[in-house]
Amino acid sequence: MSETSVALAEGETRHAMIRVWMAISAIWVAFWLCMAALVIVTSETSGPLVSQLRLFALIVMVPPVVLLALGAAFRFGFETLLRKK
Question: Taking the CA atoms of the chain, what radius of gyration do you get in angstroms?
């Protein structure tokens, strides 16, 4: 394989992984938004909602960001390992 074809495949792989991350993150956020809408519609309490929204935002946003960070770390480690060989 030539250097250009390897570089091209690396770029395509990077874009494909970003697309997979975006799809998983979109499904995750949509699921939790549906759950929140269901809870808000069915709940009868009108207490302090701000503290609950902070926890909800944490539950919704942290896993996709952690998944992205882990993917970037694994990619960096894999590329570093390949460059040493």
Answer: 20
